[in-house]
Amino acid sequence: MRRIFIALKIPEYIQKEIISYIIKAYPGYQNFKWEPINKLHITLKFIGDIKNDTVDKIIDALGFISNYKTLNCSLDKFGFFYWKKEPKILWLGLKANPELNTLVEDINIVLEKVPILKDERNFKAHLTLLRIKQSVQNNFIESFENYKIPEVNFVADEIAVMESKLLPQGSKYKDIKILKLN
Fold first, then answer.
1. Buried (b) or exposed (e) across 106-121, using 16+ Cβ within 10 A?
2. Separation CA 87–CA 18 (nearest Å)
3. Which pLDDT tens digit goes with each residue over 14-65?
4. Is the pTM of this model over 0.90?
5. Phi-psi region of 85 (alpha: psi -120 to 50; beta: other; left: phi over 0)
6. Angle 98-111/52-61 helices, nearest 10 degrees?
7. Peptide bond connecting 168 to the previous residue in cis, omega within 30 degrees of 0
8. Interacting residues of 90 by C-beta distance below 8 A, sequence separation 6+
9. What are 19-27's contacts with CB under 8 Å, separation 24+?
10. What gap in Å lies between CA 51 and CA 4, rounded to an integer?
11. Of 23, 75, 93, 163, which sits with the fewest C-beta atoms within 10 Å of its C-beta?
C-alpha cells in the first residue's frame, strides 16, 4: 500500500518568500516546528492508501493535465483550521482561481473511473505551514490573522503525484510523477 496525493508544486522562490512573511508576521517563529520549505505545496486531491497497481491507473487517468495551461496564482492571507475551538493548522491561502478550481474538479471526475471517490468537501487552495501541537497565545493567532501579505503573483506549471510516508519524525514526501502544464 502507498499513501498518495496530488499536489500543485510551488516554485522554490515563492516557498522562500513565504518563509520571509512568516518571520515578519511573528518574530517568535523559531519557537515552532514549521513544515520544511521543500514540502510546501497545494494538495489538489488526497487519495490515501492504495495498492501499487492503482498508482499507475491514477497516473494514466491524469494524462489530460498536459492540456491545461500554466496557472497564474496569487498568495492571499494566513488563516487557521480549528479543532474544538483550538487552532491546529496554520495555512496560507491562494486567491480564488477559477482555472485551478476547474482543474481540481476535472481531477475528481477522471479519478472516479479509477475508482477513487470524489471529495465531498469544497476545495480550498492553501499551503499547510504549521501543525500546532501545543496551546498558542492569542498574539500568535492575531499576528498571522492581521498580517497583510503583499501582492505576490507567480506561475505554477507542475502537478505532482506524490507519496507520503508517515514516520515518527513526521511525513516524508516523494514525487512519483511530475505532470507539466503547458
1. ebbebbeeeebeeeee
2. 20
3. 999 999 999 999 988 888 989 998 899 999 999 999 999 999 999 999 999 9
4. yes
5. left
6. 130
7. no
8. 78, 79, 80, 128, 129, 130, 132, 144
9. 21/78, 21/92, 21/147, 21/149, 22/129, 24/147, 25/78, 25/143, 25/144, 25/147, 26/140, 26/143, 26/144
10. 10
11. 23
Map residue 149 onto helix, strand or coil: coil
Contact between 93 and 74 (Cβ < 8 Å) = no
Q: Which residues pair with 74 in a beta bridge?
A: 153
User: Measured between alpha carbons, how far is residue 47 from residues 11, 42, 89, 126, 155 in Å?
Assistant: 23, 14, 20, 17, 25
Cell output for 157: 506549471
The more confidently predicted of residues 162 and 120 is 162
- Angstrom distance (rounded) from CA 37 to CA 71: 21
Helix %, strand %, coil % for the chain, to 5?
30, 40, 30
Specify the residue for cell string 469544497. 122
DSSP H helices in the chain? 12-25, 52-61, 98-111, 138-146
Q: Which amino acid is at 164?
A: S
